[in-house]
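Hypothesis: this fold can be encoded by more than one sequence.
Test: take the C-alpha cells below, design a sequence, compare later.
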C-alpha cells in the first residue's frame, strides 16, 4: 500500500510538472479564502453579528457560519473546477492553459453556487446537531460528515463533465464509490501522507536555527511558513489531478496519460472481483 501510494504521488507530480500553471488555481483559492474570511469577519464585527457568535442559542451564530461556509465553499469549488478541467485536458493528451481553467469555472458558475449552497446547508445542519449532541451524538455526526464527503468525492468531475443535475451528480458520485473497494480514497490519501512527511521535514529548518540566534529562528520560521504554503498548494493540485485520473478511468475505461495502468486500475477494483468496471448507470 505504501509503495502504491508513493507511486501515485510521483506520477501525479510528473503530470503536474508538465502543467505547472495548474498551481495558480489552488494558490488563488487559498488567497481568496483568506481574504473572504477577513471580509466576513470585518462585516460581522461592524454589523454586530459577531457579538453573538459564541451564543449557540442565537440564530445569528449559525447565520454567520452559513455565510462563511457558503463563501468558502464557493471559492474552493470554483478553483477545483478549474484544476480538474485542466487536468482532464492534460490526461487526455492536450496542453491546458490557465484561461481554459477559468473558462470552465465561469461556465459552471450556477452549478458551483448551487453546490456551495447545498454544502453550506449540510455543514450548518451538522454543526447544529453536533452542538446539541452528547459525545455519542458528536461521533455520529462526524461519521455522517465523513460519509457525505466520501459520497461526493467525484461530485465536481461528474457535475462538469456529464452536465447532470445536482441530484443525479450526487447519485453518480456515490455510484462510483459504492461500486468499488474504496481504494481510490486510500490511494488519494497517500498524496496527503507524503505531503505531511515533507511538511514535517520543514521543521528541521527552525530547529537548526534555534542553535544559531533569535534572528535566525525568525527567518527560519518565515521560510518554513512559505514552504508549508507551497506544499498546501501542491497538495491541492496533485489531489485534483489524481481524482480526475480516477474519474476518467472509471468512465472511459482506459488509463489516463501519465499514469501506470497497475495503480489506477487497482484503485477501481469492483467488490468481489479482480477486474475493473467501467459501466455507469444513466450514461
Amino acid at each position: 500500500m505504501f509503495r502504491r501510494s508513493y507511486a501515485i504521488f510521483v506520477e501525479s507530480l510528473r503530470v503536474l510538472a508538465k502543467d505547472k500553471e495548474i498551481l495558480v488555481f489552488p494558490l488563488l483559492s487559498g488567497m481568496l479564502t483568506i481574504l473572504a474570511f477577513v471580509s466576513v469577519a470585518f462585516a460581522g464585527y461592524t454589523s454586530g453579528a459577531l457579538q453573538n457568535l459564541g451564543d449557540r442559542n442565537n440564530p445569528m451564530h449559525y447565520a454567520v457560519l452559513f455565510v462563511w461556509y457558503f463563501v468558502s465553499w464557493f471559492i474552493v469549488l470554483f478553483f477545483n473546477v478549474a484544476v480538474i478541467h485542466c487536468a482532464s485536458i492534460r490526461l487526455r493528451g492536450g496542453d491546458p492553459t490557465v484561461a481554459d481553467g477559468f473558462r470552465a469555472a465561469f461556465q459552471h458558475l450556477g452549478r458551483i453556487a448551487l453546490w456551495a449552497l447545498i454544502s453550506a446547508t449540510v455543514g450548518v445542519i451538522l454543526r447544529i446537531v453536533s452542538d446539541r449532541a452528547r459525545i455519542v451524538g458528536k461521533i455520529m455526526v462526524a461519521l455522517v460528515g465523513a460519509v457525505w464527503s466520501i459520497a461526493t468525492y467525484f461530485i465536481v468531475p461528474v457535475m462538469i463533465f456529464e452536465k447532470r443535475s445536482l441530484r443525479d451528480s450526487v447519485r453518480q458520485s456515490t455510484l462510483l464509490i459504492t461500486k468499488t473497494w474504496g481504494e481510490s480514497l486510500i490511494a488519494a490519501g497517500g498524496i496527503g501522507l507524503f505531503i505531511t512527511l515533507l511538511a514535517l521535514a520543514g521543521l528541521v529548518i527552525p530547529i537548526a536555527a534555534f542553535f544559531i540566534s533569535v534572528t535566525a529562528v525568525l527567518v527560519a520560521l518565515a521560510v518554513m511558513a512559505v514552504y508549508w504554503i507551497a506544499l498546501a498548494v501542491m497538495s491541492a493540485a496533485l489531489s485534483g489531478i489524481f481524482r480526475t485520473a480516477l474519474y476518467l478511468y472509471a468512465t472511459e475505461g482506459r488509463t489516463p496519460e501519465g499514469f501506470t495502468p497497475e495503480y489506477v486500475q487497482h484503485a477501481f477494483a469492483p467488490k468481489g472481483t479482480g477486474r475493473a468496471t467501467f459501466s455507469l448507470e444513466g450514461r
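The two ends are 32 Å apart (CA to CA). The longest helix spans residues 214-252.
Hypothesis status: open.
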